[in-house]
Amino acid sequence: MAKGQKEQDVLPVERVLKTFAHEVPDVVAVHHIGFSSRAASYVLGHEAYVGGGIQQWREAVSCWEGEEAHEKFIERTRRDAIELAEATQQDIVRHEYWRMNVKPCKLIDKFTLMFGEPEGKWEVRHLDPETELFQVVAQSPKGEENFEALEDDVLGQEDSSRDFPTEANFEEVKAIVEQLGNNYAIRVGGGSIGIPLGSKIWLQAVIARPDIVSRLFEVQAKIAIRDMGLLSKIGAKLIFGGGDIASSQGPFYSPKSFRELMLPRLRRIVESCHEYGMYYLFGSDGNLWPIADDLFGKSGVDGYFEIDRRAGMDLADLRRRYPSLTCIGNISSYTLHRGRVEDVISETKSCIEEAQINKGIVVGVSNQITSATPRENVCAMLETISRFKRARGTSA
Q1: Is 0.90 topped by the overall pTM?
Q2: What are the tens digits of pLDDT across the range 363-379?
Q3: What pLDDT does 392 receive?
Q4: pLDDT of 335-370, one tens digit each?
Q5: Which residues contact 383 (CB under 8 A, 6 or more apart)?
Q6: Which of 103, 148, 180, 312 stands the most exposed, by the fewest C-beta atoms within 10 Å?
């Protein structure tokens, strides 16, 4: 039983499943998409092994130090992620943050690591402790980016997709489901689909070589569908999939390209989840309205996360236009980072109030709480949610 859980209380997993069934839970369900290590450390009172680039750096260093160090990294990450979810009263547990299970070939200094082969293909990454970004700062000369290279890339993925995984490939998911699944809803990654971010040549291919993009989406769908049976077998219920497909100006694909290239494959992934009794959620920030009818209607997706308020993705509009869709988030990372305490409180309250009016809403931060977010803003959001839950519990 969860810490502090009374026998007669509604369990977090029950609250989440009621929300996805569009029934009225006892109080609104809560899930925050991501915490930087620094923001989580404010909450826990010690260095938290969660976050983005900083977690990749930590894991890579642990791989350099050996198998025992890597196992300790995985265990501490799991422990801190669970402690964070409980401390912030979340109903959905994110047990895993960014990963980089790769041993460096050289440690240049504490924060700078080289990967690959020094005499061949290599890259150097540097961690900025302030921003927690672990970025490429140097690399060996890259080959020419052209459509032939994309075809070779897809061919390699098609070959690897013929390897069938076993439960051993998902042992960390299995462990967390066995540990917490009776009390909490567990966030499980899977079913990602989309072109590589930041690649101009892939964006060009959407228009000039849609056949290559179609093959990429086809192999991504094949891998996703292949994995769903195993994920279901080990107890997964919520599949957090999708992939960034938009900026604040709009989607990376025209509605026509999305409808012809991605939609059929996305629909098959969703149907596979439903076949196994699981929910599929699509995550992307940015302005998705130009493709929303296909993405949130015709695809059959059950949920939407990373809801980007500043890009015009509004909870009330989403709930009105897509009544079957479950929405997670809409507290803006930008407001937490740059806003005043009163702005944070107001935005948090607005999400709670919308969740009370409309069924099918999980309240929380839509994206990563950045390392530069003021401590007082993190505390203001969490305390606003906690006060609401306490008040509802007293009146129940």
Answers
A1: yes
A2: 999 999 999 999 999 99
A3: 64
A4: 999 999 999 999 999 999 999 999 999 999 999 999
A5: none
A6: 148
Q: 57-84 b/e with 16+ CB inside 10 Å = b?
A: bbbbbbbbeeeeebeebbeebbebbbbb
User: Which whole number is the average pLDDT over 107-131?
Assistant: 97
Average pLDDT score over residue span 114-143: 96
- Which residues sit opposite 112 in a β-bridge? 109, 126
What are the backbone dihedrals phi and psi of residue 121, each rounded to the nearest 5 degrees, phi first? Answer: -90, 125
Nearest CA to 97 out of 74, 115, 128, 126 is that of 74
DSSP string, 62-90: HHHH-HHHHHHHHHHHHHHHHHHHHHTT-
Taken in order of first residue, the domains within the chain and their CATH numbers are 12-34+142-156+163-395 (3.20.20.210), 35-141 (no CATH)
- The residue-averaged pLDDT of 193-212 equals 94
Q: Alpha helices, DSSP H only, in 161-199?
A: 171-180
Measured CA to CA in angstroms, residue 307 lies from 50, 166, 325, 373 at distances of: 21, 33, 12, 19
User: What integer is the mean pLDDT of 306-325?
Assistant: 95
Paired strand residues for 363: 30
Burial (0-12, 13-18, 19+ Cβ within 10 Å), 120: exposed
